[in-house]
Amino acid sequence: MTFPVVGMVGGGQLARMTHEAGIPLGIKFKLLSDTPQDSAAQVVSDVVIGDYRDLDTLRSFARGCDVITFDHEHVPTEHLKALEADGIPVRPGPDALVHAQDKGVMRARLDALGVPCPRHRLVSDPADVEAFANEGAGFPVILKTVRGGYDGKGVWVVRSSKEAAEPFRAGVPVLAEEKVPFTRELAANVVRSPHGQAVAYPVVESIQVDGVCDTVIAPAPGLSADLAAHAQEMALRIAAELGVVGHLAVELFEVPGPDGTPQVLVNELAMRPHNSGHWTQDGAITSQFANHVRAVLDLPLGDPRPRAPWTVMANVLGGDFPDMYSAYLHCLARDPQLKIHMYGKDVKPGRKVGHVNTYGDDLADVRERAAHAAGYLRGTITE
Amino acid sequence: MTFPVVGMVGGGQLARMTHEAGIPLGIKFKLLSDTPQDSAAQVVSDVVIGDYRDLDTLRSFARGCDVITFDHEHVPTEHLKALEADGIPVRPGPDALVHAQDKGVMRARLDALGVPCPRHRLVSDPADVEAFANEGAGFPVILKTVRGGYDGKGVWVVRSSKEAAEPFRAGVPVLAEEKVPFTRELAANVVRSPHGQAVAYPVVESIQVDGVCDTVIAPAPGLSADLAAHAQEMALRIAAELGVVGHLAVELFEVPGPDGTPQVLVNELAMRPHNSGHWTQDGAITSQFANHVRAVLDLPLGDPRPRAPWTVMANVLGGDFPDMYSAYLHCLARDPQLKIHMYGKDVKPGRKVGHVNTYGDDLADVRERAAHAAGYLRGTITE
């Protein structure tokens, strides 16, 4: 059968789970991975080991692929344009992806679209930071390298311009943003296909600990139907205006509006399957991974609706013990309904090595089960 | 991490879907496949191409595996005993598996356990068949080679001893069985682990067309709670008595009892993930494939309960058109809730190349959606 080949750049857990989702769809999956030990490389048949920063490697990898997509946003924009010029569909395309690669480009575009964002400005030195704070944002100020940050890396919170020297040392552009007094973080996740079909997942609450996603609750508890619909519409509009193909995660801050009614501001964009969508594997009719594959191939998209009243995802981070296997046995025995997703990665303290999903009718119970399993696997809960 | 390695013998769709289910569990999967084009070999990283009938090949494959399990029942019993003697756990073990390999052994054991079966007798020639019919079974008589049959192959329905010559031509043992006037076929599927934990899936109705499974309905409509519990208990008892490890499918005939109350007779046993359990991928909390992996590794088993009131599985058979891709696009577009499972196999008329699962509250709707998709993919429905 003439089923197509998806080439995915990057061998992390997102590629691992995309391959898993592609198996029942019958699509063929080809992986470009840094090493044979990478999370996805362990489970994919057709793996090329190579450096995604090398154009010749990318070109060689792309031969025989019907479309190229990504596990991460780090492929240089000019390489993606070169692949497109070669006639290889790149999805999301470089003109869309740049908004997830470069926070300065992203902010400028969202401003132009009238999408509410935190106050922000590109800054060149600590004096710029001081000026930004004095013109309304106030301290503390968040400083972010415009490219390459993730999970709290490349991000600084400075309480004065005296603390602001370090971000400028690397000589890369820095974006200053106000520290928004948010009540919580949300994510509006949508998937869009090349011919413009799009689906919106329920808006979720995302709870971060030390700058890393800890727990996701689907749907976001207590979110008004109006604000949920507004956030979904905003995410769909961003996807359409930016020409996104595939999964788009719009990370949001929920803040009190002028009259006390909650509003949302856009924090970050990610154009790939995203940690805030892992709950969909067990909690939605169609997972974000399956819909990402369907979108980049321009297949009809699957139903994004939830299968249970509540689904909770908790990330499993590495703890002090390199071997999680006995904790894993305990968790499977304690909760026969637990859905566990291990990434095959070596355990290092604080590293994401898996996640668990739980679902059910009672949010307190669903949260407790997810938190217990994640804590037990990490070693922070021992009973 | 010291997560274990499951070695699976056989590269068909059952191995493909077992690998898929093993990815989130974090287990490593190694495959022994006849060719690199086999369904599972297309999607598994660690594949050995070789002949499962060759003991040296099996021994070499088993090195580095923590357990060996199977996609089919065709590995010679003596080879399995040799692997066990080498210290490799083989699950299900040869002493259990022989009951799924040899219908004569299976019938004798079920008789000894008092499990109700169709009338049956090992026969050596057409005169034996005549005698079997005359002593109560009557014609037509079902003749089956005791080893090697599947999906209607190795099975004959004869209306007289004159028609009974062919099954004996190969010189292999033949089992005669009465043609049971069943009202429908059911399946009781259970999973058992080495230390004796076991779970029972809801009893399903299995609808065959031309000797091949066409549709499975979970749970079996109109089945009394008493008969469902009886069938589950019988399957659990067979699994325990035979020492089965992994998934056991007990195929059943539902027949009217002496007082008109439905009863069940055992038709066949299969000791591996089974077509009557494919619905569990999208319809149960834990799929048969995930629980098979968990069982052969002696991990705690997952919850087998259904996630929806009704789940229907329909097999996708090959039709006259070798390329299903445009039909596949149509089916995904028509039903965004459809769960499709393609096996990556070349289309040949009548060959199982995939299946679809549908689920929901309304059985008529769920059946229509599954039947439409399977029929459209095969080409028997064109609108």
Automatic annotation (TrEMBL), chains A, B:
One of its GO terms (molecular function) is metal ion binding. Residues 107-297 form the ATP-grasp domain. GO terms for cellular component: cytosol. It catalyses: 5-amino-1-(5-phospho-beta-D-ribosyl)imidazole + hydrogencarbonate + ATP = 5-carboxyamino-1-(5-phospho-D-ribosyl)imidazole + ADP + phosphate + 2 H(+). Keywords: ATP-binding, Ligase, Nucleotide-binding, Purine biosynthesis. Pathway: Purine metabolism; IMP biosynthesis via de novo pathway; 5-amino-1-(5-phospho-D-ribosyl)imidazole-4-carboxylate from 5-amino-1-(5-phospho-D-ribosyl)imidazole (N5-CAIR route): step 1/2. Its EC number is 6.3.4.18. Homodimer. Catalyzes the ATP-dependent conversion of 5-aminoimidazole ribonucleotide (AIR) and HCO(3)- to N5-carboxyaminoimidazole ribonucleotide (N5-CAIR). This is N5-carboxyaminoimidazole ribonucleotide synthase. The lineage of its organism: Bacteria, Bacillati, Actinomycetota, Actinomycetes, Kitasatosporales.
